[in-house]
Amino acid sequence: MPEAGSPAPPRALVRTLLRSGTPAEPAEADDGNLAAVGDATLARASRYWVVVPLAYRIAAFVKVFIGFTAANGGLGLGPVLGATLFAVVANTAATVWVLRAGGLRARVTGRALALDLAVGVVLNFAVAATAPASVQPFAVDVSWTWLVSGVAMWAGTCGLPAALWLFAAAVPLRAALTLAGGLPLSHQLALTRSIGCLVALAVAIVIAVAILILLGVGTRFAVDIGLRRGREAERRRTRRIMHDSVLQTLEALAIAAPGDDAQAAARLSELRSVARAQAAELRQRITEPVPNGSTRGFAVELADVATEMARDGLRTQLVAADFADDRKVSQDRRTALVEAVREALRNAVKHSGTNQVVLRVEERDGGIAVVARDQGQGFDVRDRPPGFGISQSIVARLAEVGGRGTVDSQPGRGTRVTMWVPG
């Protein structure tokens, strides 16, 4: 038994597609259920499925018309030319309508397919009854193109059973077309062309079903990959929240300070206050919706981070005189850059051995760059591998939005952290 939200086994999915065709689009899809999300995605994608047989119909009518005229000259040209012009114009209009309407919606699919099939039947009878008897089987070959693509639409939309029913109905229909042209059923040419028409229907059904299966399985795999990546991104976000907030606070609380024993009551009250503030911040970051945009400038957001770090004793000099905040950077990238800067300043507080940092923001390479520079004790980047703060809260966070982060440091010469996101 597959677990809830896991992808359906390929065999089960294929059987469902063959039996029912593309699934109906639900009003709301459960984001935690992979099968439901996959069905909803497939239903939205299949709105445009009919464009394929419509486009095939336009091209195929032109092709078979050219073949008919090459083989028969002007004999029977009138009804065949009329059918071809009608098919090209009607299907071009239908294709434009489907694309402009955002695909073929489920509420009109049944009526649209039934209308399309009825038009095809009428068109075939019109050609069969008006074409000269000597070329009537070839003329019907041209108009039969409409039914070939029509049955393909039914196969892809309603499944294999519906297509097989139509294929069975096509046998007496093809015989009726022969009789409508005044030819006996035993007419050798009519019999041969009738078999060819039925074979074309069978091939169209097979191709339509193959496309349906590829579309369905491909959509399910794509949704599976997307959800897995989304879950992994959420896990990384949770780890960063824990590292950037809770862990930092716990480490700060664990540092011994002069006068702890003499002022135990005051220290306990301070710890409780910090714990309450941290709990409120963590709850807000977990539950609040992701903001769509910020009404404040980027430099102002950096100033807020500098003010926050000042409570931990870090003096930050913000240099942004040459920076024009033109808001060309998306909110996701701005947020990632601000959080990366916050982590860089926290690292300066904990490891640099100095209480001063210069924070410079500038436009660079079509994006925004922020450089955090301190004159602290520094370290050898070759001997000390980057920890979670640098590798995840800075480098990986920026990489996820197309940016980059680099750390340059030498013992006794301070540290420079460069963070950049594209515009």
Describe the structure.
- The protein is 65% helix and 9% strand.
- The protein is of the alpha+beta class and 423 residues long.
- Strands 1-2-3-5-4 form a 5-stranded mixed sheet.
- The chain is elongated and about 115 Å long.
- GO terms for molecular function: protein histidine kinase activity.
- The chain crosses the membrane at residues 48-68, 80-100, 112-131, 151-173, 194-217.
Order of helices and strands: HHHHHHHHHHEHEEHEE
Let me know the number of strands.
5
Characterize the overall form. Answer: elongated
Largest sheet: 5 strands, mixed
Uncertain segments of ≥5 residues (pLDDT<50)? 1-8
The figure for the number of domains is: 2
Gyration radius, to the nearest Å?
A: 35 Å
Into which percentage range does the β-strand content fall? Answer: 5-15%
Helical percentage:
55-70%
Instruction: Determine the mean pLDDT.
Output: 81
Question: What oligomeric arrangement do these chains adopt?
Answer: single chain
Strand numbers in spatial order across the main sheet? 1-2-3-5-4
SS element count, helices = 12
Secondary structure elements and pairings:
Blueprint: H1 10-20, H2 34-45, H3 51-72, H4 77-100, H5 106-130, H6 136-158, H7 160-180, H8 188-254, H9 264-287, H10 298-310, E1 315-319, H11 331-352, E2 356-364, E3 367-374, H12 388-400, E4 404-409, E5 415-422
Parallel strand pairs: 1-2
Antiparallel strand pairs: 2-3, 3-5, 4-5
Pfam family, one: HATPase_c
EC number: 2.7.13.3
Organism: Amycolatopsis vastitatis
